[in-house]
Amino acid sequence: MVARSVKIQEGTGPLVDALPFTDGEYQRRLTAIRSTMSRRGLDAFVSFTPENIYYVTGHDSPGYYFYQACVVSPTQRPVNVLRRIETTNTLGRSWSRLTVGYEDREDPIEATLGLLRELGVANRKIGAESTAWFIGPQRYIQLQDGIKQAGGQLVDASGTVEELRVIKTPEELTYIRAGARICEQAMRAGIEASREGTNENEVAAAIIAEMVRNGGEYAGLPPFITSGPRSSLCHATWAGRRYEGGDVLAYELPGVVKRYAAALVRMGIVGRPGEEVKRRAAASIEALESVIAAMKPGVTSDAVHQVTRRVFEKYGYSHLFGHRTGYSIGINYPPDWGEGHIMSIWAGDERPLRVGMTFHLVPGLFELGKHLINISETVLVTETGCEPVTHFPREMFVV
Amino acid sequence: MVARSVKIQEGTGPLVDALPFTDGEYQRRLTAIRSTMSRRGLDAFVSFTPENIYYVTGHDSPGYYFYQACVVSPTQRPVNVLRRIETTNTLGRSWSRLTVGYEDREDPIEATLGLLRELGVANRKIGAESTAWFIGPQRYIQLQDGIKQAGGQLVDASGTVEELRVIKTPEELTYIRAGARICEQAMRAGIEASREGTNENEVAAAIIAEMVRNGGEYAGLPPFITSGPRSSLCHATWAGRRYEGGDVLAYELPGVVKRYAAALVRMGIVGRPGEEVKRRAAASIEALESVIAAMKPGVTSDAVHQVTRRVFEKYGYSHLFGHRTGYSIGINYPPDWGEGHIMSIWAGDERPLRVGMTFHLVPGLFELGKHLINISETVLVTETGCEPVTHFPREMFVV
User: Fold this and answer.
1) Domains of chain A (ranges plus CATH)?
2) What is the DSSP string of B130-162?
3) Does the distance separating the beta carbons of B104 and A346 come in below 8 Å?
């Protein structure tokens, strides 16, 4: 195979969209990645993960259903390998503004190998994300083989960017707080639209319109808006179901600004809540508040999760609580608005909480065919404890 | 390592949501997959792809940021390996209703290997999707090694479901046509909301609210709603930009019903269009209509693409046309609303069009920093030619 030679293009005209962060923030991120590379003896680092590529270069597009990769080398600014029409986003609105484009039917791994040669690192030790989604096993192996043929070596460097992303800076927190305001406004709009005889679609339309009008961007997952037994289907959302008296309503809403998310869950009831629903809501609120009280730097993920577990055990609801207490939240692209794979609050995880971590806490109770009961909050770990970022009455709403 | 034993759970209560297809449709799909398996000598087939899992089992959830897999064996109904709380969707609203759940921190590959043993096929020849996204290279290799240790063999069987999905049945076309109605209604709402002095967010709110009220589901990509130079950023969407006189407006809208998409692009102008914008819009419309006239069973993908290319060449716009003419469209989950990786209309692809294929045709002209000009249609390949599925005036709108 003849090696493909590539040309690195640079964006030079005025930016079409302003950058979300200062130059200092991007420089700091790049320096930290290079420091990890140096520690691991890597001459290049390749990311395939939309969140990481946005974090490092500012490249923002949902078009990663075509292969994309960001190559960080020790001296050159990061270069994004992109489908040609997607290069507009790196050339026209990114921090790094360097890209290699490939045509729709060209082999993007060949383009990536070409770039590694162009950067003079193809025959060196290169780290890449072997746990990433948007490369696919077949292409990853092709990249590995290509680097081997060039005299280099591909090793796993998953987590290189994630370990930075998990701690939020003041600039990042500004966007997460703005996202929280969007969640709260949308939740209010949703509750106002909720009444017997309306349906999930009408309420979803009111919620999403409010989000978008207030500057909410598309999120990594849709808002979850369900009623009655449909709320018990994990991650189901609007499907036109009519609201009936006695229905539990469950709304889980993201607020996304500059790709940073906050999220908020509230549940309510059409008409008068029964005793069991009231008791479950009380348990969820007690779990949430106990967890917030327990969270502070140094406490482990597992220790916090045990707080939730004990509250639900006390109520006799252990069988209805089948997942983690919470997940890290920050930059998001579909198919997830959280970053729970980086850090979660769950059983058996002995990693400590650290200042600047943000979580969406979701102590929910699912009963299939019946309902979901869940009251959540997005929170920030501070020097002294845990600060709620979302602010909304912690109660079951009644319509 | 001690082999994990698994228990297959079966949903038995009433379905929480009605199935989107008849039993006959699902049976036909399963029979076709088993026929491919038999032809390739496979004793099991494993899919990691949300669209394929929905196609085969009816399991519908955006929660595939946790590992999911569907295992098809020669005799048993398909079984989905799912995060425990996601099993609600297979137990409570799927066709197959068989699942193996794993806990949040359990190893899902171990659960998959356990299921393969339970089905008695772990030591046989198993096909899986080595080009799938939501497995990741590391886990794919772990699965491969586990099967090898069990005395079996994992081979690539990518495309097994996709080759069925590319041809739409009458039941599927009903949903795509319903999606087209949603695109049209939303486009009308968007045009009505567009005027000098409004902004992208207000228009996006009007469009999405109209979609959702009419039964539109979340799509694999957000709607793309941009104005002025922002339209030239591929796959950019609303960011609050104010509409000014002379702005090009570009709206690309999905309509999704039961996970099946149609899509529609129209562009417009605030105030009076200049000659160059008018000429580019005319070129896009001419390309679209020439392509529709050329499409029929037996004509190759490349031959159709050359029609677009020639129209733009005639106008002197070859340098502004940087991508494919169109892509197959059908079942969609984020991060794509198309299925262009299954079939596209693009250069050098000698596969013929076939009856029942559906495409979104997008003969667009991008100029970075300036605008996108694009007029599209979703179409169906029929016995005699090509039938537009979306119906909307093929013109630049003026507001």
Assistant:
1) 9-164 (3.40.350.10), 166-398 (3.90.230.10)
2) TT-STT-HHHHHHHHHHHHHTT-EEEE-TTTTH
3) yes
